[in-house]
UniProtKB/TrEMBL annotation:
Protein name: Glycerol-3-phosphate dehydrogenase [NAD(P)+]
Superkingdom field: Bacteria
EC code: 1.1.1.94
Main location: cytoplasm
Gene: gpsA
Lineage: Bacteria, Bacillati, Bacillota, Negativicutes, Acetonemataceae
Organism of derivation: Anaeroselena agilis
Pathway: Membrane lipid metabolism; glycerophospholipid metabolism
Amino acid sequence: MKIAVIGAGGWGTALATVLGENNHQVSLWARSQAFAAELAATRHNPRYLPDAVLPDGVVCTADLDAAARGAAIVIIATPSHAVRAAAGALAEHLAAGAVVVSAAKGLEIGSLKRMSEVIVEEIPAAAARLVALSGPNHAEEVALRQPTATVAASASREAAEAVQDALMAPYFRVYTNPDIIGVELGGALKNIVALGAGIGDGLGFGDNAKAALMTRGLAEITRLGVAMGASPLTFAGLAGIGDLIVTCTSSHSRNRRAGLALAAGKTVGEIEGETGMVVEGIRSTLAAHQLAGRLGVEMPITAEIHRVLYQGADPREAVGRLMGRGRTHEVEEGAEIENW
């Protein structure tokens, strides 16, 4: 089938490679005509994913209509802050009945909406066949064909299974899940905890600290997710703890590396300028902190990361505040606590 991938960054390039090797007719859209021409000529993406080799069947283009026209599946793989503009531009070019996939991980600043909500606002017709793709998926490893698993989440089982069938490969396994809220939130909020993991590594903390951070970070993610209508079971899966583990521990993780830079005293502006790529956790921290306040959900790790990023707080002092919080139960509700 024809499949369009909108966004030629690392993840978009990796997905286009998987789809091309699966013998689909793939259009990879790049915003710049010069970049699209470079991709087409060299079959490499040295800017974002040097190890990827685009299969011959992948067409690289900067023409959005040519990319999306007649595509049965359209994957939006731009950074989260560009999803609204990409979806709005796509609306008039989509084929009737096309499955739209959000491969971005984040929350929109201002509206605090998930990416699927943003897409539906721009493309109302996509609501019935919208899929979110998320999981422990570093593009660098997918490009090397290393075993990887991901989750296709949708209210439509048919749409989720269409994406599953399109992407399944010997090295790329796709699971389906009806909980699109939980899958999207897991993908967005784990980046906040990864910033904290990088800070801990930069301050010289050990494995005990990282294990505690990840575990309590997952508790925060789950609390906010449940308050927003997600299933708690989702956060025990690939899009929850799976993505959290890889993003907090991997050398590929931009968010962890940003945390290392924060621990070294660099500012957000310096980090974003040096990275040359979007560090999604920086934006997600702002949105999640506002959501937690709006919904009355306690998220102490997110609150401290927010202080470091947006109020200039010292990272070591932020850790001290977390460790010095009043005593509490690990399991915060339920019959076990009530009857204890």
